[in-house]
Please model this.
Amino acid sequence: MSLTPDELCRVVRANVLARRRELKMTQAALAAAAGVHQPHVAAIERGAKIPTIETIAKLAEALRTTPDILLREDAFALPSEGPPQEISLPQPQAT
Model:
């Protein structure tokens, strides 16, 4: 079944939020890992901003998944646990 643009935005929004919570990441941690600003992540999760393909790719990498998964309906189930906690992501090693 094909999704409308509005439905696709809802899917991306829900998947970013669910995966971030699954990883117990804050919006600030996700923003830092993806190289975007925290208010932008918050706006995407609220549905106030539509992420570009480039931003979807950055978010997917930071969320340790792939862009196609973020575009897939019900890819992640929203957890019912408390607020997310900060996690440390490994830093890239210099070559």
User: Anything to note?
Assistant: The chain is about 50% helix and 0% strand.
